[in-house]
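Pilot study result, target chain (299 residues):
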Amino acid sequence: MWDIQKRGFKGFLAIEKSLSDNSIEAYLRDIEKLTQYLELENKNHLTPIQVTLEDLQHFLSTIFELGLSARSQARIISGIKAFYNYLIIENLSKVNPAELLESPKLGRKLPDTLSIEEIQTLIDTIDLSSMNGERNKAILETLYGCGLRVSELVNLKISNIYFDEEFIKVVGKGDKERLVPISGSALKQIDIYLNQVRNHVKIAKGFEDFVFLNRSGKSLTRVMIFTIIKQLTEKAGIKKTISPHTFRHSFATHLVNAGADLRAVQDMLGHVSITTTEIYMHLDRSYLHEEIRKFHPRN
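Predicted structure:
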């Protein structure tokens, strides 16, 4: 039933709404995320018209926990609402469960960050004697050492790591490639993982070049990275809500606080617009304001 409705929705967007192929694919990806969630929750027997507002709210809670930005959440909500509006227009449903869904506010909220000490605590919490310890340490070192998006991390290839030059090639949004410097500590940990752990894994066909693998020899998923970090956060006793993206925010914030050029940080993060990176300048200013409040004699 979902496939039939998706095909109809695709035609509706193309003919009635005259949307571009890219926009149509974006809408369909949003619906695909919903159906994947229903499958994970053993609710894939539900047809589109059987899905309730509560189901949709639980779905949104899940994508929030995965660390998606407010803008990404709002886009997914927009896609789901458009899908159910289509069902209403075509008389395929009399009820719109998405009607009362609320989008997150899109204000330029300052992202949560970890202190340098908290990041070290998380890394120190990893049990290196466990089967995945060295791998998980390499993951955290790479996330924080390069400011990668979680999708960029799980798709990182061995062939894109330049050990001698201390750079990695990253494929970011829109398949845009960029070179990012990588710290010596991150490179060292990746080398340990590759040569002492990964070389003992039976690698599945097609995954030979992926850096980070699961026990089945396949690349890790975004959800798995989130789970690893959530478990380490609880074990370390850190009370903040942390996602893989928190390491990216922390990477940028610590660079700006230390005086790094904003354009250089923009290049390393792969931001198209400098205004996206400027949020970290606001973080820096708030940090300076706090320093003045605490230490200036007139305060």
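One observation from the pilot: The first strand starts at residue 161 and ends at 162. A full batch analysis is planned for the follow-on phase.
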